[in-house]
Design brief:
Blueprint lengths: L1 E5 L3 H11 L6 E6 L2 H10 L4 E4 L8 H6 L6 E6 L5 H4 L6 E4 L4 H8 L10 H6 L9 E6 L2 E6 L3 E7 L2 E6 L3 E4 L3 H7 L5 E5 L2 E4 L3 E4 L3 E4 L2 E4 L5 H9 L4
Parallel strand pairs: 1-2, 1-3, 3-4, 4-5
Antiparallel strand pairs: 6-7, 8-9, 8-12, 9-10, 11-12, 13-14, 14-15
Length: 237
Amino acid sequence: MKCMLIDDEAFALKVLESHISKLAHVDIVASHTDVIEAFNTLQNEEVDLLFLDIEMPNLNGFEFLKTLKRPPSVIITTAYRDYALESYDFAVLDYLVKPISLERLITAINKMPKQKELPRDYVAELPSSEDPPLFFYVQSDRQFKKINLDALLYVESIRNQLKLVLTNEEVFTTMTLVDLVSKLPERQFLQIHRSYIVAVNRVEQFNHSFLSVNGKQLPIGNYYKQQVLKTLNDFVW
């Protein structure tokens, strides 16, 4: 796994570098105290995971993320707790408050999806070796419940569980939204907010801020807006 570190404090970078050097499966591509240099590195290097401070000169961490068309997975590293709620709009893997222990860092890194997603343009060119799955199972009420993909309208993250809204029922499971979105067929399902995934063909209407599925209005998060509108506008005649 390739990672990059961004923090305007050199000492904070040294602490992270020391921790990460103990992890055999994580390689540091670059460490930057300047966000402009970091931006240039991201244009030329493959990075799977970004460790990002928030309060920095020129651009803060959130402003920096908005400049990236397709950001890597992100773990926030900051001395402040104040930005935790806002960070969810950017679908960060974790939010670490300094000082950061090795144990806490490992816990955050372990939230990375097991299989790195391929770039979208490359995935589109791959020959299909098998048809997309028609169903899957989730654990619900001490049993495994079958979910037919064509019946899945949308998914809502509620505290520590997911609510899967189907055409004829609702199913609750403790699976995480990150895990679920990484397994769903990406051409059929779209994450629109830190708390919502929708079936693309079930979207009844949309604008720049909201869309409707099965009569329910769902918000489009700022972090996801560009990709959501791009996907849906492909179907506008």
